[in-house]
Amino acid sequence: MVKFDATDLSPAEEAFIERYQVVGVPTLLAFDAQGREQSELRRTGYISAGELLGVMHALQSH
Question: What separation in angstroms does the CA of 8 have from each of 11, 13, 16, 17, 45?
Answer without folding.
Answer: 10, 9, 14, 13, 19
